[in-house]
Design goal:
It is a single chain. This protein has about 575 residues and is of the alpha/beta class. It has 2 domains: about 350 residues, ABC transporter transmembrane region fold, CATH 1.20.1560; about 220 residues, P-loop containing nucleotide triphosphate hydrolases (Rossmann fold). The chain has 18 helices and 12 strands. Strands 8-9-10-6-11-12 form a 6-stranded mixed beta sheet, sandwiched between helices. Strands 3-7-4-5 form a 4-stranded mixed beta sheet, covered by helices on one side. The longest helix is centred in the middle third of the chain and has 53 residues. About 35% of the residues are buried.
């Protein structure tokens, strides 16, 4: 079996990572409502502890009335005990309800934070630069955020309850055993609060033993989340590309890959359940010992005439409460292990986003946007993420209405240059001046289709209701997609249902609908036949005569529609230079 990865965030680093995650929500505008819910949850948690104190006192009185054969006192005691038990039932239910409301508000705030930071221009580069820290960002935003908020609320409130329980019942346990004497070195010696010290010593030993047995759970839980996400992602990817796999006859390879990913899940699961079994055996053993210790001690005190039957019942109850509070760490260990794994994954996610944000904001290619600006390249060097120069010292200007063909052999960096113009490739140096992003539209060779209706797909990135049906149908008609006009409100996996040339024509319909001032086309018509491609460029010229167009396209039928040239060619030094004509 493979060894689980050891956690990287420990000690002070863990506390810093925890504080960073906590302050995201608790310094937000919604924190005031979260604080009200937290105050309510704390109050109800304390009410639950108080109800247990009342139940223990009523239990003592009931048992003492039985020993005294006092029926009237027994009736009164039972009535009080029922009332206190009802209180003890209602309070935890409302405490859990308030806690759930707090969790979901916290999760909403934290999820919104990560969605805002993850979904942006820099996301394209993050997966390549920080692959290890950014495995399965979807799972980190959904499951890790959900589990972190749930565990943080649950652990914090249960710890508070344990501390208050300890303070409430420790005094009771101390008073019960304040004058107990035990034989030491042949003499009877009093140890004030003997049962309390027994509970403390037993809890310290239990915590040490639990940590020694259960420490493997932290890395195993970290790996579990990652491996489960990898397995699920592989199946989703196959579903999204099932046609391509079938045409390639790649089912056997996909099956082997899926089985291999599941075997890693299985391997991790076997290790995890083994570690959980060992911890469960230990905690069950500690629980059994905790029931015997107060019974034996109280029994000896009873036979010595130090306790009544009612006090014995109260002793067992109080010892159980104190011991449970002191062994909070033991009982919560598995939850803490999962919580630590969530902290590490979310912390790594934040650090990777920060590192990529630094690439965009500090150094690199400087992007300047201004209303009415042309596209201007001033000494632009485009590099690979690891520093290899792809394009050396490009200088060029494209004015409104210009039509530019980006030419060059494959591998000369045409697509990377287009990414830099689109603002998603910061690696390099120099300055790019261009108009606001809202007035530019970029089409890649493989268009992106959002989940939803055909109307949403053709209107993207605008909302689905941005364009009237007449305009949409007209755009589809002029691009030869009349058959899709009747399916505007149908929801389908359009990426799979439409052929490659239909997808590129539908993407061009987006251009006609949005009427951008600038159009960047990166082999966006490469799947069209020559006649359709030429017609598409004619449409852009006729319908958007003022738009500036920069296109990676080199077919003879297209070049007459693109009156200027940017030629990328290798230099004697092995780099690529741009010749703007």
């Amino acid at each position: 079996m493979s060894q689980p990865a050891q956690p990287r965030v420990q000690g002070r680093a863990l506390l810093r990572a925890l504080w960073r995650l906590v302050r995201i929500y608790w310094t937000s505008p919604d924190a005031k409502w979260g604080a009200l819910l937290l105050a309510g949850a704390i109050a109800l948690q304390l009410g639950g502890v108080y109800s247990n104190v009342l139940v223990s006192v009523a239990q003592r009185d009931v048992v003492d009335s039985l020993g005294a054969r006092d029926a009237a006192a027994f009736g009164r005691g039972i009535a009080r005990m029922i009332a206190f038990m009802l209180f003890a039932v209602v309070v935890p239910a409302y405490a859990d309800w308030v806690q759930q409301r707090l969790r979901v508000r916290w999760r909403r705030g934290l999820t919104a934070h990560y969605l805002e930071r993850w979904i942006g221009p820099q996301a394209y580069c993050q997966a390549d630069l920080h692959r290890q820290e950014l495995d399965n960002p979807d799972v980190r935003i959904t499951e890790d955020v959900r589990d972190f908020t749930a565990s943080s609320c649950g652990l914090a409130l249960s710890l508070l309850s344990a501390l208050v329980t300890l303070a409430s019942f420790a005094a009771m346990l101390w008073n019960i055993s304040a004058e107990w004497a035990i034989p030491i070195a042949g003499r009877m010696r009093q140890i004030p609060g003997l049962l309390l010290w027994v509970a403390v010593g037993f809890a310290i030993f239990s915590m040490w033993l639990t940590n020694a047995v259960g420490r493997r759970l932290v890395p195993l839980n970290f790996d579990r989340i990652r491996l489960e996400a990898d397995f699920r992602y592989g199946l989703v990817r196959y579903r999204d590309h099932v046609e391509a796999v079938a045409l390639s006859r790649g089912e056997a390879v996909e099956r082997v890959g899926a089985v291999g990913r599941f075997l890693r899940v299985y391997d991790n699961f076997c290790q995890l359940v083994g570690a959980q079994r060992n911890l469960a055996l230990l905690t069950q053993g500690i629980g059994v010992a905790n029931t015997l210790v107060p019974l034996v001690a109280a029994g000896l005190a009873y036979f010595a005439g130090l306790l009544s039957l009612g006090v014995i019942a109260q002793t067992r109850f109080a010892y159980g409460q104190v011991s449970g509070a002191l062994t909070w760490f033991v009982n919560a260990y598995q939850e803490i292990a999962r919580w630590r794994a969530n902290i590490e994954r979310l912390s790594g996610f934040s650090e990777a986003i920060d590192a990529t944000q630094g690439e965009f904001e500090g150094g690199g290619i400087r992007l300047e946007r201004a209303e009415g600006s042309p596209i201007r390249l001033d000494g632009v060097h485009v590099e690979a993420p690891r520093g290899r120069v792809l394009l050396d010292g490009a200088n060029a200007v494209v004015a409104a209405g210009d039509r530019v063909a980006v030419e060059g052999r494959p591998g000369t960096g045409r697509t990377t240059l287009m990414r830099a113009l689109a603002g998603i490739w910061p690696f390099g140096s120099g300055r790019i001046e261009e108009p606001p992003r809202e007035r530019m539209l970029f089409l890649a060779q493989r268009p992106y289709w959002p989940i939803g209706t055909l109307r949403a797909a053709v209107s993207y990135p605008s909302p689905p209701d941005s364009f009237p049906d007449e305009r949409i149908r007209d755009a589809l008609r002029v691009l030869g997609l009349d058959e899709l006009a009747a399916q505007l409100d149908e929801e389908e996996p359009w990426e799979q249902k439409l052929s490659a040339h239909q997808q590129q024509r539908l993407a061009l319909a987006r251009v006609l609908l949005h009427e951008p001032d600038w159009i960047l086309l990166d082999e966006a018509t490469s799947n069209l036949d020559a006649a359709t491609e030429a017609k598409a460029y004619e449409l852009l010229t006729q319908r958007l005569p003022r738009a500036g167009v920069i296109a990676v396209a080199d077919r003879p039928g297209v070049l007459p529609h693109l009156t200027r040239r940017w030629t990328l060619a290798a230099t004697a030094q092995g780099r690529v230079a741009l010749d703007a004509a």
